[in-house]
Specification:
The protein has a five-stranded parallel sheet with strand order 2-1-3-4-5, with helices on both faces. The chain has helices spanning 11-23, 37-47, 63-72, 91-94, 108-124, 137-149, 155-163, 195-208, 239-252, 272-282, 296-302, 308-324, 327-344, 347-368, 372-378, 388-407, 411-425, 433-439, 444-455, 459-474, 481-487, 493-504, 508-516, and strands at residues 2-7, 28-34, 51-55, 78-82, 97-101, 174-181, 215-220, 224-230, 258-262, 293-294. By secondary structure, the protein is α/β, with parallel strands linked by helices. The relative contact order is 0.05. The protein is built from 23 helices and ten strands.
Length: 521
């Protein structure tokens, strides 16, 4: 009697095949029915059928991939395929196909004839597939666990796995650990592309983790290594130690280290599938912080609300530091901005802050008017950074290069920079041309020409820009407009309002109102 397995048929077609086999129960026995190709792979290994009936095209794995996978393990039954149109399949897989029937129009006689030819092929092959021990048993078991995590396995399959002891932690709460290569290599590692290597990896990691108790290791969505680790009452593993050991082991076998997402607590079987989805969503947080492992509680403890007031305050500090070319101030401002963006865990905050930072940098570069070669070297290109840290590292590198260029400038640049620093420190005082020229020990007329040559704006324009920026900060306080005007060096409040509107497009009162309403100024 030949054992028959069917895979991925519609309910009506599956019932047709079942009725046909029942009429010939003396020759054929239906040993299983799988709803999809992944579950089908598990049932083939578990039941060792003589003949497998399935469509040529299926979700997850098509017929050719499934057959080639079985061939690579030295274990492959005979196949009867259903396909509308010509069958396109490689020669290696075609050898295992006894017959191809039309999927939408076939008769019981055609099916019986096809089964007869498949039966002859099986008898001619000598040993039954049930007598051949499959290779890559750890990989096969990994596929079974993956079915559970992806919600593909029906309840009957879960019960069978537990009944026959294949799923060692099937009814126990387990820590859920999901590991993947860090960007930019996160999409390059397909564990299923090398089954022999995967077999060795699963077996070696199982031995490594044995001191922690029972565990299951599988591949989740091709690029993730998933570890289910049985809960040990009264103890929690030292994750930094054990996950570090896993990466050290991967290094010894020349594999990339992994970043891990980890459940907050051990999860029961019915929560494994949703737990994996939650960990995949958690991975987005690695754009903002990247420790060895992340847990949902880690993200919640780090995440903070960031207001527009905080954003503009930090950006203003960076702007002033850049204009004064003060390296310590720039480093401090960048560190505060990076901490704020990382704590926000908001793509919107990151996008706004990064665009404003690049704009500030570009304006400073433009004021230098570098030659074409230097302009290309100093330019900051927008691109897809893999993390906040990556963006800020690139920004710091450009700033360092820019400051180096400035340090190589003429003595006149140093004189103007000194006066710019004086202006920022005395914005509330009278900043006449004569006073500032005296600070540089130059005549007023020569200093005026030198300042415009170096800064590309007249002295009065530069002073007014700084005063307006300072006023924008003060408008976030309860300070009155008249008092505020005096604090930034304007004796006439009306004139102050005119200057403020010229540079911001709003009067001081309107600007403050937009802040209070939570709008972006």
């Amino acid at each position: 009697m030949k054992q028959i397995l069917t895979i991925a048929f519609q309910a009506s077609l599956s019932q047709r095949i079942r009725r046909c086999l029942e009429k010939h129960a003396d020759r054929y026995a239906l040993c299983g029915t799988a709803e999809n190709s992944v579950t089908g792979m598990s049932l083939i290994e578990a039941t060792c059928p003589d003949i497998v009936i399935m469509p040529a095209k299926m979700l997850f794995w098509n017929a050719e991939n499934l057959i080639n996978h079985l061939i690579s393990r030295g274990f492959c039954p005979c196949f009867l395929l259903f396909c509308d149109g010509p069958l396109v399949i490689g020669e290696a897989a075609k050898v295992k196909v006894a017959e191809v029937l039309p999927e939408t129009s076939w008769t019981e006689e055609q099916l019986l004839e096809a089964l007869h030819r498949a039966e002859e092929r099986t008898n001619k092959g000598g040993l039954s597939s049930r007598e051949v021990r499959p290779a890559n048993s750890a990989v096969q078991h990994s596929l079974e666990v993956m079915e559970l995590l992806m919600g593909l396995a029906p309840l009957q399959t879960q019960e069978a796995q537990q009944k026959y002891g294949r799923l060692r932690v099937g009814r126990r709460s387990c820590w859920l650990i999901l590991g993947a290569a860090a960007p930019p290599f996160s999409g390059d590692c397909d564990y299923l592309s090398d089954l022999t290597g995967l077999e060795e990896l699963i077996q070696s990691l199982t031995i490594l983790l044995r001191p922690l108790g029972a565990c299951e290791i599988c591949v989740y969505r091709e690029t993730n290594l998933c570890i289910l680790l049985e809960e040990q009452p009264g103890s929690v593993p030292d994750w930094n130690l054990w996950l570090g050991r896993i990466n050290l082991h991967l290094e010894t076998i020349r594999m990339r280290p992994l970043c891990f997402e980890l459940s907050d607590e051990p999860l029961p079987l019915e929560r494994w599938q949703s737990g994996c989805r939650e960990l995949l969503r958690l991975r987005e947080s690695r754009f903002f912080l990247s420790p060895l492992y992340l847990q949902p509680k880690t993200r919640e403890a780090r995440k903070q609300f960031v207001s527009y007031e905080q954003i503009h305050s930090h950006l203003s500090s960076l702007s002033q530091a850049l204009q004064s070319c003060n390296s310590p101030s720039i480093r401090c401002a960048l560190a505060e901005l990076e901490e704020m963006v990382c704590s926000s865990m908001s793509r919107d905050v990151y996008s706004f802050v990064s665009s404003q930072m690049v704009l500030q940098y570009s304006n400073l570069c433009y004021s230098l008017q570098p030659d074409p070669q230097a302009q290309l070297e100093l330019s900051f290109q927008f691109r897809q950074f893999v993390s906040v840290a990556d963006f800020f590292a690139a920004y710091r590198q450009k700033i360092a290069l820019l400051l180096e260029r400035l340090s190589q400038g003429s003595a006149s640049s140093a004189v103007v920079a000194k006066v710019c620093q004086y202006i920022q420190q005395h914005l509330s005082e009278d900043l006449s041309l004569e006073l500032l020229a005296g600070q540089a020990y130059l005549s007023p007329s020569y200093f005026s020409r030198l300042f415009k040559k170096e800064m590309y704006v007249p002295l009065s324009t530069y002073i007014n820009q700084l005063r307006v920026q300072k006023a924008q900060q003060l408008l976030r306080t309860s300070c009155g407009v008249t008092e505020l005007a005096a604090l930034v060096g304007f004796d006439n409040p009306k004139y102050f309002s005119q200057v403020f509107k010229k540079y911001t497009g709003k009067t001081p009162q309107d600007y403050r109102k937009s802040l209070q309403e939570g709008e972006q100024p």
